[in-house]
Amino acid sequence: RWSMLLSVDDESIVNLPRWIIDQCELKIDLPSWDLGQTADYFDFAQNHAGGNGDIFNAQAITRIQELSDGIPRKIVQIAELALVAGAVRKSERVTSELVEQVCDEFTVSFGGKFPIILEDQRMNAR
């Protein structure tokens, strides 16, 4: 006997063979976060990492929320890329402009809608 964890979005599940779906014993739908939940996540993550709560300004958090459609995994991806870009640029804060630059760079580089799921670009095609 074996166990497997499968994570897909609503658009991708239609491409799975029916036998895989039939084998699922548990299905958990994770709703998108609203702006308040996203802001709470940023507070939690920054405090947990030992940083101060001012790394991302409010406009940056709002822009990340908009670009990610509230999908937690995409929120984390954009935030991590913005942190790296900010460190490279020696910025004291992550601003909405920096978030936009990061997303624009990856849209041009990958030729698709950002944020992408880095492991499989087909999952982000719409």
Q: How would you portray this structure in words?
A:
- There is one protein chain.
- 53% of the residues lie in helices and 0% in strands.
- The protein is elongated, with a radius of gyration of 17 Å.
- The protein has 126 residues and is an all-alpha fold.
- The chain has six helices and no strands.
- The relative contact order is 0.12.
- The protein has helices at residues 10-13, 18-23, 35-48, 58-68, 72-88, 96-110.
Helix and strand arrangement:
Layout lengths: L9 H4 L4 H6 L11 H14 L9 H11 L3 H17 L7 H15 L16
What's the short version?
The relative contact order is 0.12.
Rg, nearest Å: 17 Å
Average predicted local confidence, pLDDT: 82
Give the low-confidence spans: 116-126
Q: What is the end-to-end distance?
A: 36 Å
Q: What percentage of amino acids are in beta strands?
A: under 5%
Give the total of beta strands: 0
- Note the main sheet: none
Instruction: Write down the secondary-structure element order.
Output: HHHHHH
What characteristic shape results from the CA principal axes?
elongated
Helix content: 40-55%
Q: Name the structural class.
A: mainly alpha
Helix tally? 6
What key phrases describe this protein's structure?
126 residues, mainly alpha, 6 helices, disordered C terminus
